[in-house]
Protein backbone atom coordinates (compact mmCIF):
# COMPACT_ATOMS: atom_id res chain seq x y z
CA UNK A 1 0.00 0.00 0.00
CA UNK A 2 1.39 3.42 -0.87
CA UNK A 3 2.18 5.83 1.94
CA UNK A 4 -0.61 8.31 2.49
CA UNK A 5 -0.46 10.84 5.31
CA UNK A 6 -2.56 9.59 8.26
CA UNK A 7 -4.62 12.79 8.23
CA UNK A 8 -5.56 12.18 4.57
CA UNK A 9 -6.50 8.58 5.31
CA UNK A 10 -8.59 9.60 8.34
CA UNK A 11 -10.51 12.19 6.31
CA UNK A 12 -11.02 9.68 3.48
CA UNK A 13 -12.43 7.16 5.96
CA UNK A 14 -14.80 9.76 7.38
CA UNK A 15 -16.01 10.69 3.89
CA UNK A 16 -16.45 7.02 3.02
CA UNK A 17 -18.73 6.57 6.05
CA UNK A 18 -20.65 9.69 5.07
CA UNK A 19 -21.15 8.31 1.53
CA UNK A 20 -22.30 4.95 2.86
CA UNK A 21 -24.92 6.66 5.05
CA UNK A 22 -26.02 8.88 2.17
CA UNK A 23 -26.43 5.86 -0.13
CA UNK A 24 -28.38 3.95 2.51
CA UNK A 25 -30.67 6.92 3.19
CA UNK A 26 -31.30 7.31 -0.57
CA UNK A 27 -31.68 3.54 -1.04
CA UNK A 28 -28.64 3.56 -3.31
CA UNK A 29 -26.29 0.65 -3.90
CA UNK A 30 -24.08 -0.39 -0.98
CA UNK A 31 -21.03 -0.54 -3.29
CA UNK A 32 -21.48 3.25 -3.86
CA UNK A 33 -21.81 2.93 -7.63
CA UNK A 34 -23.00 6.34 -8.83
CA UNK A 35 -21.59 8.20 -5.81
CA UNK A 36 -18.02 8.70 -7.03
CA UNK A 37 -18.40 12.36 -8.00
CA UNK A 38 -20.35 13.36 -4.91
CA UNK A 39 -17.96 11.56 -2.56
CA UNK A 40 -14.85 12.79 -4.39
CA UNK A 41 -16.11 16.37 -4.25
CA UNK A 42 -16.76 16.01 -0.51
CA UNK A 43 -13.33 14.43 0.06
CA UNK A 44 -11.53 17.14 -1.90
CA UNK A 45 -13.37 19.87 0.02
CA UNK A 46 -12.61 18.23 3.37
CA UNK A 47 -8.92 17.88 2.48
CA UNK A 48 -8.76 21.53 1.43
CA UNK A 49 -10.44 22.57 4.69
CA UNK A 50 -7.85 20.54 6.61
CA UNK A 51 -5.02 22.44 4.94
CA UNK A 52 -4.09 19.77 2.38
CA UNK A 53 -3.87 22.01 -0.65
CA UNK A 54 -2.34 19.61 -3.20
CA UNK A 55 -5.48 17.54 -3.69
CA UNK A 56 -7.35 17.36 -6.99
CA UNK A 57 -10.57 15.79 -8.18
CA UNK A 58 -9.79 13.62 -11.18
CA UNK A 59 -12.31 12.49 -13.78
CA UNK A 60 -11.47 9.65 -16.18
CA UNK A 61 -13.53 6.96 -17.91
CA UNK A 62 -16.78 8.15 -16.29
CA UNK A 63 -15.27 7.80 -12.83
CA UNK A 64 -14.17 10.40 -10.30
CA UNK A 65 -11.60 10.06 -7.52
CA UNK A 66 -9.16 12.26 -5.62
CA UNK A 67 -5.45 12.56 -6.05
CA UNK A 68 -3.07 13.95 -3.42
CA UNK A 69 0.33 14.38 -4.99
CA UNK A 70 0.67 11.22 -7.07
CA UNK A 71 -1.43 9.10 -4.71
CA UNK A 72 -4.92 7.99 -5.71
CA UNK A 73 -7.56 8.01 -2.98
CA UNK A 74 -10.81 6.42 -4.12
CA UNK A 75 -13.59 6.23 -1.53
CA UNK A 76 -16.00 4.49 -3.94
CA UNK A 77 -13.71 1.78 -5.34
CA UNK A 78 -16.03 -0.87 -3.93
CA UNK A 79 -18.09 -0.41 -7.08
CA UNK A 80 -15.18 -2.12 -8.88
CA UNK A 81 -14.99 -4.99 -6.40
CA UNK A 82 -12.41 -3.46 -4.07
CA UNK A 83 -13.04 -5.03 -0.65
CA UNK A 84 -11.83 -2.23 1.62
CA UNK A 85 -13.75 1.00 2.06
CA UNK A 86 -10.99 3.33 0.89
CA UNK A 87 -8.69 2.33 -1.95
CA UNK A 88 -5.21 3.77 -2.15
CA UNK A 89 -2.95 3.56 -5.14
CA UNK A 90 -0.17 5.14 -7.14
CA UNK A 91 -1.17 7.21 -10.13
CA UNK A 92 -0.57 5.27 -13.32
CA UNK A 93 -0.41 1.80 -11.74
CA UNK A 94 -3.10 -0.83 -11.93
CA UNK A 95 -3.57 -1.93 -8.35
CA UNK A 96 -7.27 -2.75 -7.93
CA UNK A 97 -9.34 -1.16 -10.68
CA UNK A 98 -10.66 -3.13 -13.65
CA UNK A 99 -10.10 -0.39 -16.22
CA UNK A 100 -6.34 -0.25 -16.50
CA UNK A 101 -6.17 3.31 -17.79
CA UNK A 102 -8.56 4.92 -15.30
CA UNK A 103 -5.73 6.10 -13.06
CA UNK A 104 -3.17 6.68 -15.81
CA UNK A 105 -1.85 10.12 -16.68
CA UNK A 106 -2.23 9.24 -20.38
CA UNK A 107 -6.02 8.78 -20.55
CA UNK A 108 -7.48 11.04 -23.25
CA UNK A 109 -10.69 11.92 -21.40
CA UNK A 110 -8.91 12.57 -18.09
CA UNK A 111 -9.32 15.96 -16.43
CA UNK A 112 -8.11 17.29 -13.09
CA UNK A 113 -9.83 19.92 -10.98
CA UNK A 114 -8.35 21.88 -8.10
CA UNK A 115 -11.46 24.03 -7.87
CA UNK A 116 -14.51 21.99 -6.80
CA UNK A 117 -16.88 24.44 -8.50
CA UNK A 118 -15.12 23.80 -11.82
CA UNK A 119 -15.73 20.09 -11.33
CA UNK A 120 -19.46 20.71 -10.82
CA UNK A 121 -19.52 22.89 -13.96
CA UNK A 122 -17.80 20.06 -15.87
CA UNK A 123 -20.42 17.59 -14.66
CA UNK A 124 -23.27 19.86 -15.73
CA UNK A 125 -21.70 20.63 -19.11
CA UNK A 126 -21.03 16.98 -19.94
CA UNK A 127 -24.48 15.68 -19.03
CA UNK A 128 -23.90 13.72 -15.83
CA UNK A 129 -27.09 12.30 -14.32
CA UNK A 130 -28.58 14.95 -12.03
CA UNK A 131 -28.55 12.69 -8.98
CA UNK A 132 -24.78 12.15 -9.40
CA UNK A 133 -23.78 15.80 -9.70
CA UNK A 134 -21.88 17.10 -6.69
CA UNK A 135 -23.35 20.03 -4.82
CA UNK A 136 -21.40 22.94 -3.33
CA UNK A 137 -20.61 22.31 0.32
CA UNK A 138 -22.44 24.37 2.90
CA UNK A 139 -20.51 27.13 4.68
CA UNK A 140 -20.78 25.16 7.93
CA UNK A 141 -19.11 22.13 6.27
CA UNK A 142 -16.37 24.37 4.88
CA UNK A 143 -15.39 25.38 8.42
CA UNK A 144 -15.46 21.90 9.98
CA UNK A 145 -12.36 20.45 11.56
CA UNK A 146 -11.39 16.80 11.18
CA UNK A 147 -12.73 16.19 14.70
CA UNK A 148 -16.08 17.73 13.79
CA UNK A 149 -16.22 15.73 10.55
CA UNK A 150 -15.61 12.54 12.48
CA UNK A 151 -18.34 13.35 15.01
CA UNK A 152 -20.78 14.26 12.24
CA UNK A 153 -20.08 11.02 10.35
CA UNK A 154 -20.98 9.02 13.45
CA UNK A 155 -24.41 10.61 13.85
CA UNK A 156 -27.33 8.47 12.81
CA UNK A 157 -29.16 9.66 9.70
Task: Give a description of the structure.
The protein is α+β, with helices and mostly antiparallel strands. It has one domain (6-150). Helix content is 36%, strand content 15%. It has helices spanning 6-25, 36-49, 116-125, 139-142, 146-154, and strands spanning 55-60, 63-68, 71-74, 87-90, 111-113. A five-stranded antiparallel β-sheet has the order 4-3-2-1-5, with helices on one face. A hairpin with a 2-residue loop joins strand 2 (63-68) and strand 3. Helix 1 runs antiparallel to helix 2 (36-49) and helix 1 (6-25) runs parallel beside helix 5. The protein is globular, with a radius of gyration of 14 Å.
* Overall pLDDT score: 80
Spatial arrangement of strands, main beta sheet = 4-3-2-1-5
Main sheet overview: 5 strands, antiparallel
The N- and C-terminal alpha carbons lie at a distance of 32 Å
Number of helices: 5
* Estimated share of beta-strand residues: 5-15%
Structural domains: how many:
1
Helix content: 25-40%
Class by SSE composition: alpha+beta
Number of strands: 5
The outline comes out as globular
Rg, please?
A: 14 Å
The unreliable regions are none
SSE order in H/E notation?
Answer: HHEEEEEHHH
